[in-house]
Write a structure and sequence with these properties.
9 helices, two-stranded antiparallel ribbon, single chain, alpha+beta, 4-stranded antiparallel β-sheet
Length: 187
């Protein structure tokens, strides 16, 4: 997928010098949901996407109830249609590495569920795919490209998930509902 590779290279160049000094996976006392939320705000800004759009994608992908509120989760993996929410970066990374060792290359990781098979080459390592700042920025740039091709954030979100029309339509229905519930411009 040349577009994804070019997007990945642009991402690496764009944020290589601005990567956080402390990796987001251990970001000074923030809880997992707060790590995602900070990355969503930063990624949306870097990628030229409304915060609420990237937030709705993250909630559609990894949203789980915490204290009565749906929130994104950075240590989530979807493999072969089954979601896994881990308590830590280390557990999620170990599962991803075990998946690769078993020959399972198609799995999604992180707050915004970037697929290793299709987008892994855009990151220096599997570990970097678990950095919420990097993946949120990548996701925002990818969504921006899809928006420019399709003309609506809903259509872009559907294509972000799948180019198979029925899968995209199902995803869009959930995305649209979550987006409508979010405050414009914030978390």
């Amino acid at each position: 997928m040349p577009r994804c590779l070019a997007l990945g290279l642009a991402l690496v160049l764009a944020i290589a010098g601005s990567a956080p000094a402390e990796p987001a996976r251990v970001a000074g006392g923030l809880g997992p949901a707060e790590i995602c939320e900070r990355a969503i705000v930063n990624g949306a800004r870097r990628g030229g996407v409304p915060v609420e759009v990237l937030h709705a994608v993250a909630l559609t992908e990894t949203g789980m109830k915490q204290d009565g509120k749906l929130r994104a989760w950075p240590w989530a993996i979807n493999r072969e249609g089954k979601g896994y929410w881990f308590d830590s970066y280390e557990e999620a990374l170990a599962f991803a590495k075990a998946s690769l060792a078993d020959g399972r290359r198609s799995f999604d990781v992180g707050c915004v569920q970037i697929n290793y098979r299709w987008h892994g080459q855009a990151f220096p390592s599997l570990e970097d795919m678990f950095d919420p700042e990097w993946t949120a920025t990548y996701a925002a740039q990818f969504l921006r490209t899809l928006y420019e091709e399709r003309g609506s954030w809903s259509e872009a979100a559907g294509a972000y998930h799948s180019l198979t029309p029925d899968k995209a339509m199902t995803y869009r229905a959930r995305f649209d509902r979550l987006l409508a519930e979010l405050e414009p411009g914030g978390l």
